[in-house]
Amino acid sequence: MARRGERPPIGLTWVVTWPLSAAFAALVFLAAEEIHHPSRDVAPQAAPAAIGGPDWTARFPERIAAVDAALRKAPLRLPSPVEDERGSGPLRWTHRLYEIDLPRADQAQAEAAIEAVRGADPGLAVTAENSADGTDVRVGLDGLLVSTLRFRWASDATPTPQAPPRPRVAVVIGPLGDDLRVARQVVAIDGPVALGVRPFRPFSREVAELGRMFDREVLVQLDGSELRAGDTGRSAGATPAPTPDLDALLAAVPKAVGVAWQQGSGEKSRKADRHLLEELDRRQLLFIGERGRVSGKALPPPAVIAEAEADAVAAQLSALADKARSDGSAIGVGTPGDTTLQTLTQVLPEWRAAEIEVVPLSALAGSVNLSAR
Fold it and tell me: Which of 115, 199, 210, 265 is 20 to 30 Å apart from 52, CA to CA?
């Protein structure tokens, strides 16, 4: 969308905005909130179910499905979307992000895809935002963002050899959950550092919510000593600890995108068993450990960053960067000690200057659905 005072860019005259019906005028401000902050959930009081009729909330998912069906019928091959859940309370829906690479010569296909949704619903609105190499088309329904089509325009000229992809590093800091002050130090780090949260600790839920507020991915961090809910009275060495109850773990650490399993040295410590891995795969959740994966896709095995003197921590982080350069990607799991946090804070800008990307864990897993948690 052109900035104020600028002429609309050529070739985007196909992007139109359908007016919202008067019955949903109270929801107009939500469209701006979703466009500027697309990752934020909508507060339940902002979209009362009474607006638009007594069955408005119940009908909203099927109306989204109709819009999505119209997009898929368009003369444009859509990839599998990245899905995430939006809203709260009685109003919840699935937002779908389609990332589409097209040469500019095929822009007519993009125009047809958007035209295909015209008339799919009277509450439909479409807006566009341009960048240097693409266009984000946002599809709203009654003022709520339901789909995003991210068109990345490839040059029509003869392609030049592409530079090799940059090495990527993801970092997890944990275990957290006993001290909220330490968790605040972690989220203050300038980078997408994931939070490893131990379940059933005094501040497990608060740390998970803090991570969500700062757009940091949260993992349930285990060492194999956790027992299934209801089995906490089992004696330490009587029988092997049962498979952790995944539902209980995810309830203790809300919005977790997966599990980080760090095998300890105690007698209760053990490897993640097959049943837990299968359940994580079924829900398409990350698993960071000896056999790291998401839905069967292998992830780099994590390197442990041990708390030590500053020079020793710096050497471990340097080795992690070297591993990313050689393998393409690397994952580091460190404890929230003062030296580790201070050294990591100093190293991250150096990595960026050396063209090493610091990325969220999910970036190493590809386009997956992390909304089944």
Answer: 115
Residue 242: count of CB within 10 angstroms of its CB: 15
**Residue at token pair 């605040």:** 184
The radius of gyration computed from the CA coordinates of the chain, to the nearest angstrom, equals: 23
27 is written with which tokens?
Answer: 């929801």
Decide if 183 contacts 209 (C-beta within 8 A). no
Domain 168-364 homologous superfamily, CATH: Glycoside hydrolase/deacetylase (3.20.20.370)
Tokens of 121: 């619903």
Angle at 93 between CA 87 and CA 94, to 5 degrees: 115
Report pLDDT digits (tens) over 173-188. 999 999 999 999 999 9
Q: With CA atoms as reference, report the closest residue to 274 among 297, 291, 262.
A: 291
Q: H or E segment at 237?
A: none
Domains of the chain: which residue ranges?
22-154, 168-364
pLDDT in tens, 86-142: 887 778 888 888 888 888 777 777 777 777 777 788 888 888 887 777 888 888 888
Name the helix (H) or strand (E) containing 278: helix 274-282
> Taken in order 51, 37, 187, 228, is the CA torsion positive or negative?
positive
As a whole number of angstroms, the distance between CA 149 and CA 336 comes to 39
